[in-house]
Design the sequence.
DNA sequence: TTGTAAGGTTTAAAAAGTAAACTTTAATAA
DNA sequence: TTATTAAAGTTTACTTTTTAAACCTTACAA
């Protein structure tokens, strides 16, 4: 039995939801992600920022206040990290 | 895209290691688990207790101090929880 | 214009994770 | 014997992370 390390940034439910969504959608805005992931706005905001800082997603913010719009897109590094995470997880199951 | 909730007790790397190990070994003692999971004794002790309190493992403790021996075994509920967790995870990866 | 709601961000509090320090007993050396 | 060291765990205090309530800014409606 050999357990591969799990990327702690991806080993969080909300962040994983965001990444999984962006992996198949390739781009989604804040409101859509909020609805899809069932997250609160605050939590979503924080986790998006963490993924952005890690370089796993790219975020375009435009406007302020009500007129603002935030669009997220997964990066190459993000896709790779997600794949690696998935592979690591497999080492835990049979 | 529908994300199933991930059991928070299992969605922790060390606890998952413990459970995955016990799932295939069916019984392992503290020292063996410590070596296998590469955990510190303190962390292992805490996480074993949490899994025990949840009814996912059964723990037999005998003796005290150096002569003590702690053996863990997965329960039916633990096996089911692990399976459910695994299934839930699959909903995150296409 | 002013009230209300939408889109996000900041924050402070709660929860969880971690490992150093400790307790107890067994083995070993002097 | 009687220290001394080391093994097996547990407690604890600390840090990190998570979470959502409160907040800010702007747009729209009445």
Sequence:
């Amino acid at each position: 039995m050999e357990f591969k390390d799990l990327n702690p940034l991806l080993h969080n439910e909300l962040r994983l939801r965001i990444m999984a969504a962006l992996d198949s959608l390739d781009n989604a805005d804040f409101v859509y992600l909020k609805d899809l992931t069932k997250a609160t706005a605050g939590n979503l905001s924080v986790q998006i920022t963490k993924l952005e800082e890690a370089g796993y997603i790219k975020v375009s913010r435009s406007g302020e206040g009500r007129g603002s719009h935030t669009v997220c897109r997964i990066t190459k590094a993000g896709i790779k990290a997600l794949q690696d995470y998935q592979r690591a997880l497999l080492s835990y199951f049979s």
